[in-house]
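pasting for the record
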Amino acid sequence: MVASAISSIVRVIKPQSVPSFFSRYPVAISIAAPDVELALRLIGEDACEENTRERRRALIRHSNPYGDPFAICHCSALPERLPLLASIIEVMWIHDDVTEELDHSSACQQHQLLAEVLRVDIDPLKYKPANVRQQTLARLLQAAIALDNDKASSMVETLRNYLATFDNRDDDFDSMSEYMPYRISNCGYWISSYFIRWGMGMTLTTAEYESIRDYDIAMGNVLGLTNDYFSWNVEKDQPTDRIRNGVRVLSREHNVPPDAAKKMLLGSIIEEEERAATIKKRRIMQPVSESVAMYFDAIELYVGGSCYWHATAPRYQKFDVSAALRCNLASTPLRPKRISSTRDGMGAITPVFNSVVRPVSIAEFREAILSTCKPRFPNVRHARSRPIGEANKLHLARLCADWFPGLAISGGVDSMALAYLFSHYVKTYKSQHITDNPVRDILSVTIDHRLRPESSTEAAKVATNVRHLGLRAEVLRINWSNVLGSDVDPTTQPNMESLARTHRYRVLGSFFAKQNVVSLFFGHHRDDQYETILMRLLSGHGYRGLQGIRQANAIPECYDINGVYKSGLADDQLRVHPYLKFSPPISQTRALRKTLKHESTMPGFEQFRSHLGVHDLSTRFPGQVERDYDASLPYLSPLTVEDGGITIYRPLLEFDKARLVATCEANGVPWFEDGTNLDPTLTTRNALRKLCRENELPKALQKTSILALAERSRRRVQVEENQAARIIQQEATIVDFDPNVGSLLVDLPLLHIGRSMYARINKAARDKARRGRQRLLAAVITRKLLSFVTPDSHLPSISNLENTVRRLFPSLHADEPAFSIGGGDRKGFSIAGVQFDPVPSYNSTRWFLSRAPLSSNYMRAVATDPSSVFKRPSWVSSPNPLPWEEASDPAWKSWKTAVLWDGRFWIRLNSCHRQSRLHVLPLMAEHTRAFKAALNPKDRARFEKLLKYHARGKVRYTLPGIYALQAPIITPGGTGSEEAHRKMMLLALPTLGIHIASLEKWVRYDVRYKHVDTQILGKRKHNKTPRIHRFTTRVSVSRRRRQQRLRMDEEIQI
């Protein structure tokens, strides 16, 4: 944003049309641009000899069709001062061009000659100059002194310091720490900073400038390094040894080639911009004068304008016009050609340029990464580096051309553009975090579905192209014989698309989990988003289905794979060196202990000693559930709630496919085209592509309108979800959540949202109008409550919860006078595997949610053939044993992975006696008596109390139990396949922590609860306030009294 004091003398420029522009700062051009161009043309004639190098460079410097550097960079200057300001600095630039080709001693002599005219009492008529630069500078200096005599001495001193310091080094630099202080002066930042203040007629006091000096240094670093970044294209080929450039310094310091050093230089520029922004933010939190605020805006316009001018100046660009003419997308970054110009009412020249499709810059990609990959765990104190993953899917058959929109198809342009951008991103921003962890490596994977003979060759070529970009690449193949059987041809299956999608995700999830990858990137773009929403419109989806492709979501189809789908963080926290650490570092703890030890000797410490906790510095691990302690009951430690897993990110959703094509073509990145995408008879998506490509759709169906519709749908859904979560938390809807049993006690709000309007004529109409919104919120609240208990992977849709909402919130479907809270007509019911039982009490809105009883067919299968209902993992030696596992004895083996039992509990076993055929099955009534008899008296009493309090009635028979099975007993005359006579023994109830004596000597277990949203387990802020069923906003005292009088009048009339 441009400050209001400056906006009247500038015209804002949108730099997005310039491909190589990367600055975060605004750009504008002064309304005095024509006067500046005229003045500089005269200076070029006066201060340069004819047919000299400096004369040619001055002409090139001011031939930029986008604008003159002074009109852009110094646009904050007053229009009457800007031409003179530009002329003085232009003489210094011409002097720099002259001395750049000289040796150091000769250059210093020229600096001394020019410094002779820098006097307050200079008289150009009496002074005999040695060259035209002296003569021109003397004339300009006299004009500046006459314009502002008060600042004459400071201007002379500033120019003298510039000539004395900007070329004071004759040797090369070995590090950037040495080079950057030199570069600030050498690039002329200090005189530019002074002339910015002079041009605005502004003066900063010594105290004011000292308070922002660090900011000025950071912005000077940005300016000098930006000039190095763009000038390297020209300076790298110059024969002189007097070139000082940050690319050369970085190349020497880190022993890398110049191309890599240039990318590192861009990263340094971005870091300096962030440092300057941090300093500014810290400074403006304090009282700031108007002069300092205007200086902040002017410097940002100067630095942003410098990047814009360097990115467009012909002096620093090398254009390939013929390549752009050959490509109808004009993917090569060209210098726009000015075809006309107009003059607006302010007198500024407005250039008109040819439009081109520009490639995606690294800076734009960085912004997309930062906006897409937000931290999943903001409370993390320390994070170790992790690799990140990029998936490529190979298009393998015409039948499967539309498995997943835009998912890196056969090394397509979207995936290769993503690979190229990531390869340069990690080189440019070495210390950048993605989500919670710093980036260590990038791993690219291509999925070979093995449905065509040439698929393996194509997958190998894609991997080779990715390796050429500097990334690791792997090819994973789907083994269809393990999925469908050795005799089944996968291409003949009617549901081939869904099968391929499911197993593609499962292969990706399993592989990346082993590589400790939790961030997986896909190459979906805006065109994919547009096509997806059009398809959903055709299918009749509502606004919840029109949100389109999400920027980030948990990996699908891997719901039962531990460490992949919303799980794995609990195991990470048990390791010696976790990837995410929520506790403070030891150094911080020691410093706090030392401080407290010192302050404990001071008077008054005893008053607040009781308020200090041992865990005040540590943030709570997201999976930890707190439970109130009741001395009358045996304490049962709550199970850890799982979290973590792999998240899919799509950072290219904000870019059109044309820009990705331009990115690949501009940088020589090859890709594969899939011909099946052009066949409109193959899939609905292909038909839509052809329709959109060959016809002009109505405005309501064009890309801009459809994407705006999706954005509105996302915002609406987000508002509803947030409001439902806020009601659950603020109204203390969840009274108790028991992860050991998977049950939930809730006290439902009545959802009387809005102000209570007594004695209003339109009260009934207003309440009726609110009912639709209240029912929708009730359905969203119900879905959130179901997610805590349901064993299903997918929650029921909002439309399928209408009857459930009618049962739970009868007040939203009945007239107010006829409704009574906690009526006797409430009955239990089940939905999505969850049993709803009303809690009988007067005026109660409480319900108890638990797992619905298991079906009789399922229990019959458990009793006859346990292996058919429970797929036991293989036993392996754990390479990184967790604390609960036995690591010293090689006889102990663990399950290869944890098992998601009944969609609710993650269970993993560790045993040294595997002949007992351990299974995890539901608790059966016929085994309870024998199990109680095997417990010692203390554990037996504890077991009975736990069942009575935590698992009453049929709920206990939905809990998992660890069973030992004997070998099957073959009956006389049988076939040997009977399992009914197999003897089973209950060993433990892992969620309750109860097991037979000495079980830990040969079996150990670990159990966690599935991922749920623990953030909504909030409590009322004012616990002493009684429950209020009707929510009424606060009203004024006068209105409250008026309502009381109306109610009293109604009672009197009755």
